[in-house]
Amino acid sequence: MACSALSSLNFVAPVVPPTKHFLFSDPIHSAARSRLALPPPPRVASIPVPPMNADYLADEFSGRGVAFEAIGDDCVAKLSLDDGSSAVLMLPRGLVTSYKAPMWHGAKMELLQTVVSEGEDGGGAEVRGGVCVDVGVEGEGEEDGRVSWRPRDWAVRDVRGNSGDSVQVELISRDSKGMVDVRYVLTLQRQVLSTEMEVSNTGTAPVQLRGSILSHLNVSTPDATYAIGLEGSDFFKRPPFPSSFRIFPPEVDLKGESGLGKLWEKFNPRGFASGNDYGMEDETEGEEDDSYKRLTDEMSIIYTSAPTNLTIIDRGRRNSVVVRREGYNELYLYSPGSRHEHYSKYAYICVGQSALLKPVVICPGEVWRGGQHLHNPNL
């Protein structure tokens, strides 16, 4: 298949008819449409990057609903709206560590789960969880053959909006190999937090994008948590994929010879050369038969035909979150299981808008966009 034909498949999210399981439909579509428009960007390499200095960023972007605060050599951006919604973005990692939203009972609730632990080899504090952009790009280098790159250090390009309506922080990351330009845009609106990516192929050969925008949703316990609307979706069960952003319970071994990370290596990008597009065996796939899926058991599932909107309901905390997908064709769902203490650091659910099994192909000169929207319908 020609590159242009491949890429056209990646620009259109699958059309899913509305079902009775969705808590809403129009509000999230109108919220996505009303977010601040993104102008076509110049090449990232030509953009002057502000220094990663909290004082400088505060002076440059003050009065727009965002406050910058230094944390050692790094800093955080604190987004807030007049209705009480807020989010915290770590820089330069690009990790969203908090999203608080007003609830029906009048208080604000933290919707994300993060864990702070000691870094490897006794290093500084390490923060995991929240909402992360964990993707990699692979393509042909002019001199080095097959090359890969993962954006890890993000710089603030711009801040737009105001605290009364919507606040948007735009980040950029530079690829030293000259394959792609990447923009990462975090938008806080009333009842919606959007995490969006824009990947421009600036090279001369097609590139493949793999990975996910992954959210750790805070719940009382997976035993009281349900995923609504997955009935009829095709899926593949896979071991949890390793990541420097993921929260894993201590019994999940991603490093040992017998760990889940070793199992996942069997299904790395180069393992999909034969068989169908997903390179899977029959016994590992299935079709979801539960429209009200309880997340009690430990699970790691990639859905290849899930609806665009997915609702996560937590009966213990009496709230729900609607997750909307754009651009990505896969949905990743992970539960650590309910054997951990309720309301503990392992009481969470992972939801990811993903290209883990089948990559997104971006041809030279083309731009691909994908994102995730977390909607709070609890007012």
UniProtKB/TrEMBL annotation:
<protein>
    <recommendedName>
        <fullName>Protein NDH-DEPENDENT CYCLIC ELECTRON FLOW 5</fullName>
    </recommendedName>
</protein>
<dbReference type="InterPro" id="IPR011013">
    <property type="entry name" value="Gal_mutarotase_sf_dom"/>
</dbReference>
<dbReference type="InterPro" id="IPR014718">
    <property type="entry name" value="GH-type_carb-bd"/>
</dbReference>
